Fold this sequence. Notes:
The chain is of the alpha+beta class and 306 residues long. Helices cover 16% and strands 54% of the residues. The strands form three sheets. The chain has an eight-stranded antiparallel β-barrel with strand order 5-7-8-10-11-14-15-17. A two-stranded antiparallel sheet has the order 1-2. It has a two-stranded antiparallel sheet with strand order 3-4.
Amino acid sequence: MRKGTVYLIFCNFLLFSQLGVVCSAAENRQPGTDQFSSGNDRRSVSDISGDSIAVEKKERNVVWKEDSVGEGLPSVYRRSAAGFDGILDYDKLLRARLQLGTRMAYRFLTKGDSGHKWGVHGSGTFLGTIYSLKEKQDMMPLQLYASWYFTDYIGVELAYDQLEVETAATNIYHRVVKNDGNLKLSGPTLMLLGRYPNLTQFTPWAGVGLGFYRTSFDAASYWAHNPGFRNSYSKMSTSNTYGFLFAAGVDWAIMEHWNINLSLQYLSAEVDAVFRGYLNDKLYTTQSGSFPMDNIAIRLGAAYQF
């Protein structure tokens, strides 16, 4: 009997203790919010939902930057009155970070002359009697690019680059200079960028990277086939190449979301080539050489800034 009475009193004590905790939490509830306070511990429904979102995203192998305001809350989620609604904050991902634009370029070859005019293969020319290269300017703004900064200062750029040069060769029999054809390069470039944001409209930047180029040789018709000279044929094969890039420039914000940019780019690249000559449909010579494509480009462009 006494043991039963003690057990009943103990159960009633636990019941009233739980009711007291609930009442205390209701009294400490902040009006118009989902937040409760108990001493120094403040916790909200949005905190809990934010934690669950963060856990869910980690399970999908996505790493999110922690929010500086609330511990464990991913900053890439849009904040609403009811907490985080699970929608990615594209403003934080794109605004002042992503830039899409196009450029045109005026180029100067830095090693366009071999210094061996009237030479032959093996005398210091680039290949055969080709002794010089000349830029073929294309001022069309077709060099598209996209840049994205993952911090305020550091970013990457993916761009399209193209270059065409004319060859100059000599005819040692008639002492004339001729064009055997044009050498073309085109392909994507990838650069690591650094910029200096400031309170003015001008943002200086610099970059270093690599270019990956597909090459081709567009032969002159009279060079490729000369039926009047023992039905001669000439063929040139070129190897794809890569080059080192260095660039520096400045972006001028002319209005919201739009800027004009001026930059200098240096490309260091070399194209290997093989020449084959045929007489009466028979191979009579094979020569190999290389063409230096090092150049400085003055570039002017326009871009949309998100």
